[in-house]
Amino acid sequence: MIIGSHVHFSKEQILGSVKEAVSYGANAFMLYTGAPQNTMRNEINLNYLEEAKKIMLENNISIDNVICHAPYIINLANKEKIDSWNFSISFLKREIKRCETLGIKYIVLHPGSSVKLTKEEGINNIIEALNFVIEDNSKCMILLETMAGKGSECGSSLEEIKQIIDGVNSSNIGVCLDTCHLNDAGYNINNFNEILDEFDRLIGIDKIKCVHINDSKNVLGAHKDRHENLGFGTIGFETLLNVINNDKLKDVPKILETPYVSKNDGDKELAYPPYKFEIEMIKSGVFNNNLIEDIREFYK
Ligand code: FE
Ligand code: FE
Ligand code: ZN
Fold first, then answer.
1. Residue-range domain boundaries for the chain
2. Pairing relation of β-strands 215-216 and 227-228?
3. How far is the CA of 51 from the centre of ligand 2 (A)?
4. Which ligand is nearest to the CA of 184?
C-alpha cells in the first residue's frame, strides 16, 4: 500500500515535509513548494534535500511516491487577461524546474477555470498553454487533476481530460484522480471499477499516476468540492478503502487531502492534522467511529 497525505513545505523545506510524512506513518507524500494560495517561492536548499533523501531511504519512501501540487492560482484556461495567463505559464515552467531540482517526478495541476469564456475555449487555452510548458524530455510530468465541476472548472469529466491530453503534442502528461471531485462531478465511487474501465477505454489506465483519497461533504453530482474525513462523508469508508486497495492501481500513490480537525480552545480555534489516524484506520481496514475525538485527544 502506497499511502500518504499532503504535508507542509516550510522552514526546512522537503526535509520538514519528509519528517511530517514519517510522523504520520506514511510512505508517500504530497507538497506544495510554498503556500498553495500564492506564488512566493524560496530557493531550494540542497542541504535540506540531502538530509531528506537519507530519511526517505531509512523509511522506505521512494521519490517516485513524492508528488508536488501546483498552486491554485495558476489558471491556464482563462486567456482574457493575457498577462495572468502568461504568468501562469511561466510560473508553471519554474515550478517544474523546482521539481526537477528536488527529483520529484509528478506535479498535479488543476486544469483551470474558463470564467467568462466557454468550456470549449477554456479547454483550448489549456491545451495551448500546456504545449508551451510540457517538454518531452522533462523528468517531471504534469498530472491533470479530475475536478468537481465547481463554477467554470474544466476537467470535471473523463471526456474533458481526454480532450486536453489529445490536444497536447507530448506523451509526457498524466492524470491524478480525486475521489471527492469524481463524486461531486457525478461519478459514483461505488462503481469504481466501471469508472476505471471507462478511463482505460478513453485515456488508458497507465496514465493514472496519483489518486487523491478524500471523502465528500456533498452528494453525488453536487459540483461543490468540499473534502471530508474518511468515512464521515457521502462516499464512505468501505468505498474509499476499495479504491485504495484496487489491484489495478496498487503501484499508484494514494494521497489524503482531508480537512484538519478543529477544536475550540477557549478563545482560539485550533486545528489538527487527521492523517496519522486516517492512515492507521486505512491500514487496519476497520472504520473508527471515534476518529475525530481520538485526534483531538492525541494532540491536546
Ligand atoms: Fe488539487
Ligand atoms: Fe485533490
Ligand atoms: Zn478538492
1. 3-298
2. antiparallel
3. 28
4. 3
Contacts of 198 (CB under 8 A, 6+ apart): 158
- pLDDT tens per residue, range 176-232: 999 999 999 999 999 999 999 999 999 999 999 999 999 999 999 999 999 999 999
Q: Which residues of 148-166 are buried (b: 16+ CB within 10 A; e: fewer)?
A: bbbebbbbbbbebbbbbbe
Number of other residues whose CB lies within 10 A of the CB of residue 81: 11
| 119-133 and 158-167 helices, crossing angle to 10° | 40
224: CA distance to ligand 3 center in Å? 9
CA 109 to ligand 1 centroid distance, Å: 7
C-alpha 267 to ligand 2 mean position (Å): 32
The CATH homologous superfamily of the domain defined by 3-298: Divalent-metal-dependent TIM barrel enzymes (3.20.20.150)
Distance 98 CA to ligand 3 centre (A): 23
Separation of CA 177 and ligand 1 centre (Å): 9
Q: Is 45 exposed, middle or buried (0-12, 13-18, 19+ CB in 10 A)?
A: middle
* Tens of pLDDT, residues 134-173: 999 999 999 999 999 999 999 999 999 999 999 999 999 9
Nearest ligand (C-alpha, residue 36): 1
pTM over 0.85: yes
Alpha carbon of residue 217 to chain centroid: 18
Which ligand has its closest atom nearest to the C-alpha of 255?
2
Distance (Å) from CA 108 to ligand 1 centroid: 7
* Distance of alpha carbon 76 from alpha carbon 89, whole angstroms: 7
pLDDT at 56 over 90: yes
CA of 10 to the centre of ligand 3 (A): 22
